[in-house]
Amino acid sequence: MFFAGTNFIVKLIELDHIPAGLLERPASALHHDLDGPALIHLEGKNPQPLFVAVLQHGNEVTGWEAIRRLLKSHYEFDQLPRSLSILIGNTRAAKHRLRRLDDQLDYNRCWPGGNHDDSDTGKLFQQVTERMQSLAPIAAIDIHNNTGLNPHYAAINRIRPDFLRLASYFSSKVVYFTMPVGTLSLSFSRFCPSTTLECGQAGEVHGTDHSMGYLETCMHLEELPNTPMDAEDVHLFHMVATVRVHHEALFGFGNVPAEVAFRENLDVLNFQELPPGISLGDVNGGPAQPLLATNVDGQDVTGQYFRFDRQQIETVREIMPSMLTLDRRVIQQDCLCYLMERIHFEDHIEVTDHDPLPESMRRSDRPGEPPL
Ligand SMILES: [Zn+2]
């Protein structure tokens, strides 16, 4: 069965089977069969589907590797425990091993409610969303990779027991975000529990193993319990600031003659909750404020997190960095890291379905933008 897309430039391919040979293809070769996003529905014992999105970013191949290994294992012969709806995203960018092509929008900013609803990709994803909403999936899972030495974690967009539980099956460390808009998980969070998985760097077998095991777990769930979660079982964080190195500061890593000499293994601090007084490196001159931390409104909040007056970059409050990298190009073009703070979700659980962001958080703690 083949449902023809409508007259959009990016057409949705919708199938009820895996095309012959597709599971043999690495992400970079999928374009031979699928010239654009494809939504594939596979029937399982429980008809309520699990929705899984892979390759929204063409170079983040872990999701596709997990799906094809999962389906090539016993499910080539056995019935799936639950129906599976799979969105294979940016096959054109995957061909070139890129996040997206220059003439494409970032797919994970084009879902309903974002800033690109009128774009061809936005209209296409509107169709996917409506189709999936009509199938009332048990959950939506969007699989990504990132750079640097980061542990695997799940991100959610609503603080509700079912969302927390869905995320906690993947990792006890969970990130909450509501910006950027137009992400799949944020859009789907209006009608089903959803999560974005960050599975470390692309190409790591460990990431494929972990996400494959997670999908298997989710397919076997009878339901997602809505009972309150224990504060011990989930550690919820949100992003509060982006940290950049002052553009005039000469920096290096380890024991080097630089104005800012970061710790050699700086990236081992990712997702570690650091107490006040931890040093990220030595300061040997250069700008008085070698780092700049800005909040989501772009305000300079450096003083809330760091001090530099003792020839060190020292933390001044409990904080958890993420995406710390040793890659000079990333640091110069993007940022050094993001800072996250713990949310005591017990105090922030949504009371009703119509309150996507608790009032107390709307007021003061607007979360930042993780690089999803
Ligand atoms: Zn991504």
Describe this structure as you would to a colleague.
It is a single chain. Helices cover 21% and strands 24% of the residues. It has 372 residues and is an alpha/beta fold. The chain has 2 domains: 2-231, Zn peptidases (Aminopeptidase); 239-340, no CATH class. The two termini are 33 Å apart. Strands 1, 2, 3, 4, 5, 6, 7, 8, 9, 10, 14, 17 and 18 form a 13-stranded mixed sheet that branches. A 5-stranded mixed sheet has the order 11-12-13-16-15. Bound molecules: zinc ion. Zinc ion binds next to loops.
Topology at a glance:
Layout: E1 2-3, E2 13-15, E3 38-42, E4 44-54, H1 62-72, E5 80-88, H2 91-95, H3 120-135, E6 139-144, E7 153-156, H4 161-168, E8 173-176, H5 184-188, E9 194-198, H6 205-220, E10 235-245, E11 251-253, E12 260-262, E13 279-283, E14 291-294, H7 302-305, E15 306-307, E16 312-315, E17 320-322, H8 328-333, E18 337-343, H9 359-364
Parallel strand pairs: 2-3, 4-5, 4-6, 6-9, 7-8, 8-10, 11-12
Antiparallel strand pairs: 1-2, 3-5, 7-9, 10-14, 10-18, 12-13, 13-16, 15-16, 17-18
Helix pairs in contact: 1-6
The chain binds zinc ion (ZN).
The site of zinc ion has 5 residues, from loops.
Which key terms come to mind for this protein?
9 helices, 2 domains, alpha/beta, 5-stranded mixed β-sheet, 372 residues, binds zinc ion, Aminopeptidase
SS element count, helices? 9
Assign a percent range to the helix content.
Answer: 10-25%
Bound molecules: zinc ion
Percentage of β-strand residues = 15-25%
**Stretches where pLDDT falls below 50 for ≥5 residues?**
1-8, 352-367
Number of separate structural domains: 2
- Tell me the number of strands: 18
> Helix- and strand-based class?
alpha/beta
Radius of gyration: 21 Å
Can you write the helix and strand succession as a string? EEEEHEHHEEHEHEHEEEEEHEEEHEH
Mean pLDDT: 90
* CATH topology-level fold name of the largest domain: Aminopeptidase
- For the report, how would you describe the main beta sheet? 13 strands, mixed
Large-scale geometry: globular
Query: Which CATH architecture of the largest domain?
Result: 3-Layer(aba) Sandwich
